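Exam revision sheet. Question 4 asks you to relate a sequence to its structure. Input first:
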Amino acid sequence: MTGSAVAQATALGVVIEIPSPLEASLRDWRRRYGGETAAAVAPHITLVSGSTTNWKTAVEHVRRVAAQCQAFKVSLRGTGTFRPISPVVFLNVLEGAEACGQIHDALVAGPLLHELTYGYHPHLTIAHEVDDAAMDLAQEELKGESMEFMVQSIGLFGLDDTGAWSLREELGLGGPSH
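Answer key, structure tokens:
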């Protein structure tokens, strides 16, 4: 194409990272039920995942959304699944689900607007695209688990040169973190 540039789409994700020591337990569960590939990705709650052709505009939007949100508590309790629609077993987000939904809605009401195949449902994936026996085991063995933590920031991720997700910026809720 002579005389015109085609903008390249860049993958972008905004997530709630899980604090230590909870992160280590969750990573162990992901390894046990989902294998090393699942454990390689840090446990998180996705707020939005998509792509942008203008990273700067998208980042400015994410910063504005974070600055307008307040810290909130998340409680993870029991398991759920998206089967048979999607091969996923997850921990349920109970307290904090509404706040996650509000942040998600604010993020997609701007340059991150995109079509969702399914409605937004905050959750923490434990097993994904593994055999039914592993998903059944995860769903049964973790059904009584619960944990809670405060969410004071959200992480902005992009793909690095190796194709792995990497943290680009941590954004404190209610303004920049110090």
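Marking note for examiners. The first strand starts at residue 10 and ends at 17.
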